[in-house]
Amino acid sequence: MRAVRVVRLEGPDAVEVAEIGPPERQEGQVLIDVRAAGVTYPDVLLTRGAYQLKPEPPFVPGSEVAGVVREAPAGSGFTAGQRVAAFPGFGGFAEQVAADPAMVFPLPERLSFAAGAGLPMNYLTAHFAFVRRAGLRAGETVLVHGAAGGVGTAAVQLAAALGARVVAVVSSEAKGEVARKAGADEVVLAEGFLPAVKELTGGRGVDVVVDPVGGDRFTDSLRSLAPEGRLLVIGFTGGEIPTVKVNRLLLNNIDVRGVGWGAYWLARPAYLQEQWRDLLPHLEAGRLDPVLGGSYALDDAAAALRALDDRTASGKIVLDVG
């Protein structure tokens, strides 16, 4: 089968497409013919050896896919020919992948394979952030940084589906249109977002901040919180890991909460299916539908990874596998 392999730990350009053997399938796993694969920021980090997991080259990246079940063991809950999304962990940038049934999810007919490949990491992360970590309530106001990216558009959509008012923070007017398409109620530019948010909320601030960016906007994110507000730390695509002067947390009884979705479900694999069951009604009703920012052929995987690395991508980037 054809697959994208990281052959050197030198960044997105150190990948190549090659013919390799079929995936090593462990007992009980589901074998999937991949139609589309989601491209994530951890994939970029993996090409540099900068992710917390550090496989030795050559290896096949790709942690989320959508496709059709080729083979499934009895009792797995899946059947040959079934449309699915999956979170295999590694190996998704290939024509076939094997995954544990706990990490395979039925894909509604209304969703394309490209959209399905954009669901597992971003939407399950957003669900964990809002439902488990933030305890988001209908009627609250949510501020989403990086709102035109994959995680950002998922957070915008899910917050809106859960009944929140959504304020999107973006770096350009063009990215603002992407956030509006995802369902944001208001859009503000990252430069000077704090006074804009204060004005939009009548000086009160927001109840929840979603921050996958980090960097120098972190302090103003804390300042934008209403009393008893919660800032959700999801990642650091801005490159810098910020620090917190904890006296700021005392002033308005605000919280900074880590969102380590992977660390949580690794100890509780059944949690993934619980999350998917919560999301399914929204997926079937069309309230959740990934905003696609670009589709690349398998041969153009390096360009797809560069689009994320350069922060030029909007929406979800996917590989069209076949």
Short synopsis of the structure:
This protein has 322 residues and is α/β, with parallel strands linked by helices. It contains 11 helices and 15 strands. The chain folds into 2 domains: 2-118 and 290-320, Quinone Oxidoreductase, Chain A, domain 1; 122-262, NAD(P)-binding Rossmann-like Domain (Rossmann fold, 3-Layer(aba) Sandwich), CATH 3.40.50.
Walk me through what this model shows.
The protein is of the alpha/beta class. The protein folds into 2 domains: 148 residues, Alpha-Beta Complex (Quinone Oxidoreductase, Chain A, domain 1), CATH 3.90.180; 141 residues, 3-Layer(aba) Sandwich (Rossmann fold). The chain is 30% helix and 25% strand. It contains 11 helices and 15 strands. Strands 3, 4, 5, 6, 7, 14 and 15 form a 7-stranded mixed beta sheet that branches. α3 crosses α10. The radius of gyration is 19 Å and the shape is globular.
Characteristics of this structure?
322 residues; 2 domains; 6-stranded parallel sheet; globular; 7-stranded mixed sheet; Quinone Oxidoreductase, Chain A, domain 1; 30% helix; Rossmann fold; alpha/beta
How many structural domains are formed by the residues? 2
Class derived from helix and strand content = alpha/beta
Percent of residues in beta strands? 25-35%
Under the CATH scheme, the architecture of the largest domain is Alpha-Beta Complex
Find the count of extended strands (DSSP E, 2+ residues): 15
Count of separate DSSP helical elements: 11
CATH level-1 class of the largest domain: Alpha Beta
Q: In angstroms, what is the radius of gyration? A: 19 Å
| Helix and strand sequence | EEEHEEEEHHEHEHEHEHEHEHHEHE
The CA-CA distance between the termini, in Å, is 12 Å
Helix content: 25-40%
CATH homologous superfamily classification of the largest domain: Medium-chain alcohol dehydrogenases, catalytic domain
